[in-house]
Amino acid sequence: MRSKTVPAGATRLSAALVAVLATLALLAASAAVVVGPAPVARADDRSHNDRSQHASQYDHRSPNDGRQRPVAHWTAAWATAVHHPFALSEWFGPNWSEEGFADQTVRQVVRVTTGGSQVRVRLSNRFGTAPLRVTGVTVARAADGAAVRPGTLRPVTFDGRTSTTIPAGSDLASDPVRLPTRALQRLAVTTYFAQPTGATTFHEGGLTTTYRAAGDHRFATAAGPFGGEATHSYYLLTGVDVTRGPGRQVGTVVAFGDSITDGALSAANVDNRYPDELAERLVAAGLRLGVANLGINGNKVLGDSTCFGERGVARFGRDALGQPGVRTVIVLEGINDIGSGGLPDTGCGTAPKVTAEQLIAGHHAMIAAAHARGVRILGATLTPVKGNEYGYDTPEKEQIRDEVNHWIRTSGEYDGVVDFDRAVADPADPDAFLPAYDGGDHLHPNDAGMRAMAEAIDLADL
Question: Any idea which UniProt keywords this protein has (predicted)?
Fold first, then answer.
């Protein structure tokens, strides 16, 4: 959410046309989603030992009887939504997406929301313009800062090879790695790029420190080599999946939305976003479900942005329905379509005004796509904006928010409703945040507000 804009050239479409086009696009995208390794243009560094280990560890055939073993079911234990590289440091601070990496190692820390006996990592060159060479990757249990726990470092392979090349526009999943994990454990994924990458696909609002070091430090256990540079974004890394073994299936809950889902104004490095708090509730309740956060700062249902990702109806099939093991999606999106409409360009494009009808048509499209895949989908009401100084708080925009929220609550189109609006609103002034939950800009919740949102979710609906 922190954006107020979409690209120039967007037009105002009728609600019916928006619904038809968005639904067709989503159904096509969701039908085309395939979770697993994408085609690799070139890979090498496959030794005889690599081949032997690959055959014994990952081949599903028994050497004795030739029969197929049960297929492992993967669950998204951590995920993030990626977008175009951009720099807007006056708003968000520096990041490395435009400069990329050359003879550098990047260590990224994630917290998995459910555990398993094996892990795999997913990388993306979705918004790259050329093939991207990955020299090598490791995964380990994280320690303090950039350090990892000794004895837990594992090399990651791709089709049995330690190096790989990801074609432009493609995603790639690794081979399984034998590293037992438990829910809420932190892992470190370390990637070395020997050759210049150029601008890289990334996720700006990571709220978690990512470290960079010169040279190849994939197997460093101490934090020392990573003491120089850090940002709070994720680069190329889109997911960490887990499996409990063949035949043992665990589902994933996807939180889909904008900066409120992404955690803007939540504290960094403490995992207090509402999806993080939801994951903790599930663990406390003994429910083995993964939670994947697919929010993007500034994202909209109907508008693309050069900074803040493809429109929600375009990315829903891939980012939400494409997550391994997805069973339920929570949709919290639309406040940026309303609030940024008609505001001037601040570097990421301009946004047309939208109507409640147009937004509802976009939500209809996401509902249809989820149901076509047999996925449960919950609608979340849009949270308050009264007092916001970004231009979101006007009588006209508040009326649209009220109309959309009324439809979410009463239409019965969603499989269930999560009333985030009422969870964080001030009972004495329902159009405003409760002061104890306000992140300070009257638009984003603070950590206490994030907890209140997570507590508003009925776990039985998941």
Answer: Signal
